[in-house]
Amino acid sequence: MFSSEVDTAIARLDSRKAAWLTVGTPARIDYLKRCMTGVMTVAEDWAIAACQAKASNLAGEEWLTGSVTTLMTLRSIVRTLEGRTARVEHGIAKVFPDNLLDRLLWLGFRGEVWTESSSLNSLQVRNFDPGISLVLGAGNVGSTPPMDLLYKLFAENQVVLLKMNPVNEYVGEFLEQAFAPLITDGFLQIVYGGSDVGSYLCQHSKIDSIHITGSHHTYNAIVQSLPNPKPITSELGCVTPVLIVPGNWSESDLKFQARHVASMVAHNASFNCVAAKLLVTAKGWHLRDRFLTLLRQEFAKIPNRKAYYPGAQQRYQEFLDRYPQAEIFGTRTEEIVPWTLILDVEDDYALNTEAFCGVIAEVSLDATTATEFLDRAIPFVNERVWGNLSCVILTKTKVDRAIENLNYGAIGVNVWTGVIYALPDFAWGAYPGNDSDDIQSGQGFVHNGYFLDRPLKSVLSAPFRIFPTPFWFADHGNLTNFARRAAELQITPTWSKFTQVIFEALRG
Predict the structure, then answer these.
(1) Does 2-85+125-235 carry CATH code 3.40.605.10?
(2) Assessment of whether the complete model's pTM goes beyond 0.90
(3) What is the pLDDT of residues 222-233, one digit of tens each?
(4) Is the N-terminal amide bond of 468 cis, ω within 30° of 0?
(5) Architecture of the CATH domain 240-461
(6) C-alpha angle with apex 64: 62 to 66, nearest 5 degrees?
(7) Contact by Cβ (8 Å): 205, 129
């Protein structure tokens, strides 16, 4: 019976939860640094296993979404425990970039976390009671379980029981090796199993809190199954809108942003909670048709990928049945959901249903100028589009008022919000205010490398044209070498390692 194994894990955590509160900052930093060494040791095998599971040859993508992002999280927490703080003005914390190497790596990028509090790093000084947090790991991206468990351990001071998702339970082997120092000392345990194990754990009397990355359907099932309420934080996906702000874009501008949008769909075979799912355009924009033509061309260039996540074919078919105008790029098979573009959507289905496969819909609003468009688009996505996790704005004009008015937890200006996920200095979660009756994209924040109190939204702004080729672009030509060097830079942040990253980035 699975219960004996998980009960043993819970008993181990229960016996150590009080001890975790007595572990001082130097010892915590030592745990984190040893785990960084552990992650680097398994990184190559981790990427290979992920490629095998997904029938993918994109090892660089798996490096970046697995070990590199995990390493960045570990280093971010180390730096916070070593005493770094963020500059704050009027409740806005300037979090990225915060050191010379990052400023040079991310030229022109600017990142903020908007908060409800003027107090920073306040989680570090809170009084905590001993507790066990159950982290229900995501099945799509390998770095999500370790990023979530690290926040629960180091920011919220609870020992962690991580249950791997059956879809990517192979990652557990590598996490067990990488996080062995925490596991050996009883502050982290990893277990496996299906929904029956998850249900048992959620209802277990020794579990004090739950964090889930998954769907709102799973969240609702958990809430309904609990005999007594428990604190639950969650990240539950989104119909991520991409707002195309009309302007005088050159032909090369149009091509670059068509590559950008297509890559937001294709990354990880579109099994991302931040995958682009809804294009919002201006009907009167004189370049709209040209942009959509170039977008079609980009989808035609990107090889189709295995639809490895369960239920993809059924979700895809539901979109095809509803939208006969769907344009398909590639050939559908039992294993492949081809990239699919659905223009001129007039009903609410695509606005309220996360496809979680290679589909993106488009809706055009009655607008011609940037001002007209934003005046219509912001209330449109706030009020009519499901979810409030992630929103992208592609623009050559200033959009300060739009950023202020968007009710999303992650806002990317000229950059995909998957980058906000990957940069752990940002807080990651839905815009606050969701309740269990209408959970939308969830409640609470993770990542949050500065341990900021009561985040509202994370905002990352980038140049309209990013150079060199961004690592999340589907046509990056040197991703694996770049990813390996990026991992090494996290382990040894020196000018020599920085130069190697730049060299590989320029070859992309």
Answers:
(1) yes
(2) yes
(3) 998 888 889 999
(4) yes
(5) 3-Layer(aba) Sandwich (3.40)
(6) 65
(7) no
